[in-house]
Amino acid sequence: MTRQRIIVMGAGVSGLTTAVTMSLAGCDVAIHAAEGPAQTTSALAAAIWHPFYQAPDLVYLERARVTYATMLRLSADAASGVRMRTLTEYFQRDAGVPWWAECATGLERLAQGDIPPRFACAYRMNVPVADAASYLRYLMNMFLELGGRYVQRRVGDPASLLDNADRVVNCCGYGSRQFGDDDLSLSRAIVLRAKRDDAVRGCFIDDSDPQAPTYVVERDNDIVLGGTADPDLTSTVIGERQIEDIVRRCNGLCEGVAALQVIEARIGFRPMRRAARVARDERHPRVLHNYGHGGGGFTLSWGCANDVLRLAGVAGVAGRAGVTGAHP
Ligand SMILES: Cc1cc2nc3c(=O)[nH]c(=O)nc-3n(C[C@H](O)[C@H](O)[C@H](O)COP(=O)(O)OP(=O)(O)OC[C@H]3O[C@@H](n4cnc5c(N)ncnc54)[C@H](O)[C@@H]3O)c2cc1C
Fold first, then answer.
1. What is the DSSP letter of 156?
2. What are the residues whose beta carbons fall under 8 Å from the beta carbon of 148, sequence distance 6 or more?
3. Nearest CA residue ID for atom 15, ligand 1
4. C-beta 148 within 6 A of ligand 1
5. What are 144-164's pLDDT values in tens digits?
6. Domain span at residue 171?
7. Mean pLDDT of 305-319
8. What domain count does the chain have?
9. Does residue 60 have its Cβ closer than 6 Å to ligand 1?
10. Predicted confidence (pLDDT) per residue in 63-77, tens digit
11. Which atom in ligand 1 lies closest to the alpha carbon of residue 290?
């Protein structure tokens, strides 16, 4: 049987996981991307598995579950940049066990006396966290080792590639807006990178304020402090007050943050949509889309890639291996 020829557009976390998944399924895959992994929005992410600002949703849950399982497997390989870390999440309203927590291992509710009194409850669990730069490099290497090809180029229209491929998968993140999706918008995010320090171990989140999500994420090479969520704001200026505010909020979740040495302040833009678009194009059914993951691009990545595989009709592969079964 001839192998399906696939072009994946984009080399962020969505493009790379899709390209690896399709390569593992036996497809002949090339990535065409305007910018390499290190220049993408994905490279700026805290890259913790967590359903940021997400209402309960069964499709989301299944994709997040597949991703959790895959990243858990990858964490066994030190080169992947993925580690399992303890996440403590604080809630200002007690709505019981978080709807997505069933995906995670080691779930426990903290005793009321052990949490700051302004919170109604807190849960602790183990979640995968990636050092984004190392992880994206690792995925690219895996893709190339599987025989994939990488071409650096900006594409004007996904359908224009159909002469050279059986299917084209658009994983262009916010770049997909230029292909006519008016439902896609930006949410600006400011994050700080601090030097690692023994005073901060594990990850801490309070995302009850949708405009001021607060998170401390321990990674291999740094500690990420966040953040902000500013819809439609495109300014790239970061004020001293915003940095102080992030450090203050993070210190409220984990004492020790105030003493950290902040080495960098960064701005990124989340590709927002009501829901990620993982679907066939209406006009060109051989064009598939996988973009618009908002604050959950890492959290959804392997699950969405599996769904793309199904949409591509690669017979039996998602069941046989999917990415979860075939990884090193
Ligand atoms: C500060 C910050 C923190 C975050 N933290 C987390 C987190 O902890 N956990 C989590 O799950 N998510 C997090 N997110 C969200 C996550 O980063 C995004 O959802 C994810 O990076 C989107 O990945 P993507 O591959 O779809 O797009 P991108 O990473 O933007 O990649 C798009 C790719 O498409 C290419 N491209 C664009 N246009 C074209 C074109 N015309 N032709 C060819 N190529 C093109 C680009 O060059 C790039 O290679 C965070 C986001 C930000 C900004």
1. S
2. 19, 20, 23, 29, 30, 31
3. 295
4. no
5. 999 999 999 999 999 999 999
6. 5-326
7. 78
8. 1
9. no
10. 999 999 999 999 999
11. 26
